[in-house]
Amino acid sequence: MTSTFLLDLRKLDFGVEKKVAEISAHAAAYYRIDNHSHYAFFLPEVNLENIPMELLKLQHYEKRAGSEFLFHYQQANLLFLPTSETPALCNGSTLETWNEELKGKCEAIYAGRKFYHGDEETFKRYGVLIKG
Q1: Is the pTM of this model over 0.70?
Q2: Quick one: DSSP state of residue 18?
């Protein structure tokens, strides 16, 4: 079940005007590692055609590992993962599995139109609006 997430680009780059990127994904998570923000989006298939152009236009460093895409921006990292490589997500994940998979640092997790950790306000605080 795909949801639409609106990501505030100012959370990625200092020089961005008020703009958002619309991301269609099965799930989203926000977490911090070493005091650095990370956004993870789980897509049915990860390829450049599925990455919003607004994200590609921003100054970034891009790294690909298999079917995963990692984008490094000034203020945050953005990770796109295929749901096929996330069996826990496909099989109705538990919070413990999610936390382990995302290094136990999750502050917000949303999948299948349900909050597993955090809530709508938590996502808003980190610049993510959920359209449904």
Answers
A1: yes
A2: S
